[in-house]
């Protein structure tokens, strides 16, 4: 039944993906959205997977592989980490990723990024990393990072495809279109580097306050909606013309 619906969805709104080649002679930046224990590590909290999940595991592996490559090339990397004040709920979700707990830290496969000089970590208290980068004085850590590094192409990976990844892409595309992010030209969302969580309808019906969240369906929709904003959706990412990443 579920797979039939997914097939129907993919027929009705087919998602064209492409192989994106990141030019070696320009600056490419990598954004990692919320690849933290509270969303990715089995049993790590209210919004963590209850059991091992193929889509989330692939997202972590692909993100770690790309992060290693970007660091080897000394290219700029920015990681958003969902981090909430314990007394400020984020509806409609239960308490999650409380600041100062391990839930709001990078997953073990990415923890090494904390020691890399080309990596900027940004703790955020909302879905959208762009909004979460705003400072009280009106400046924006993400905007400054793009400009300072003269980033022309942004590669985006992380979780959740349909929530924090999509929100960040939407804000970034609007800001780029208004000229706030020069010299940024391209925003690429790498599909195998993204994931979302799974709450099947029958589980949601038996859980007070839970929204149904079928994983494959909403992952597809998240990518599709990013494409509707003008992002490229990549199923493969290469550096230069030859080197496979
Ligand atoms: Zn949150």
UniProtKB/TrEMBL annotation:
<comment type="similarity">
    <text>Belongs to the isochorismatase family.</text>
</comment>
<dbReference type="InterPro" id="IPR000868">
    <property type="entry name" value="Isochorismatase-like_dom"/>
</dbReference>
<dbReference type="Pfam" id="PF00857">
    <property type="entry name" value="Isochorismatase"/>
</dbReference>
<protein>
    <recommendedName>
        <fullName>Isochorismatase-like domain-containing protein</fullName>
    </recommendedName>
</protein>
<dbReference type="InterPro" id="IPR036380">
    <property type="entry name" value="Isochorismatase-like_sf"/>
</dbReference>
<dbReference type="InterPro" id="IPR044717">
    <property type="entry name" value="NIC1"/>
</dbReference>
<feature type="domain" description="Isochorismatase-like">
    <location>
        <begin position="30"/>
        <end position="200"/>
    </location>
</feature>
<dbReference type="GO" id="GO:0008936">
    <property type="term" value="F:nicotinamidase activity"/>
</dbReference>
<dbReference type="GO" id="GO:0019365">
    <property type="term" value="P:pyridine nucleotide salvage"/>
</dbReference>
């Amino acid at each position: 039944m579920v797979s039939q619906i997914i097939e129907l969805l993919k027929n009705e709104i087919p998602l064209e993906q492409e192989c994106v080649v990141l030019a070696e002679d320009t600056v490419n930046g990598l954004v990692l959205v919320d690849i933290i224990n509270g969303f990715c590590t089995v049993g790590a909290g209210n919004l963590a997977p209850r059991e091992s999940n193929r889509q989330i595991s692939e997202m972590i592996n692909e993100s770690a592989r790309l992060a290693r490559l970007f660091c080897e090339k000394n290219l700029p990397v920015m990681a958003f980490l969902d981090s909430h004040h314990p007394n400020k709920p984020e509806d409609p979700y239960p308490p999650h990723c409380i600041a100062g707990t391990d839930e709001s830290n990078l997953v073990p496969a990415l923890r090494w990024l904390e020691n890399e000089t080309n990596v900027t970590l940004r703790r955020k208290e909302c879905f959208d990393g762009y909004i979460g980068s705003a400072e009280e004085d009106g400046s924006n850590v993400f905007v400054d990072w793009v400009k300072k590094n003269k980033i022309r192409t942004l590669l985006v990976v992380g979780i959740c495809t349909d929530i924090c990844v999509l929100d960040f892409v939407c804000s970034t595309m609007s800001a780029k279109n208004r000229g706030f992010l020069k010299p940024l030209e391209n925003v690429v969302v790498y599909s195998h580097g993204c994931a979302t969580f799974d709450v099947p309808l029958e589980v949601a019906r038996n859980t007070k306050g839970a929204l149904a969240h079928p994983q494959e369906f909403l992952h597809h929709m998240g990518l599709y909606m990013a494409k509707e904003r003008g992002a490229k959706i990549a199923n493969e990412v290469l550096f230069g013309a030859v080197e496979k990443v």
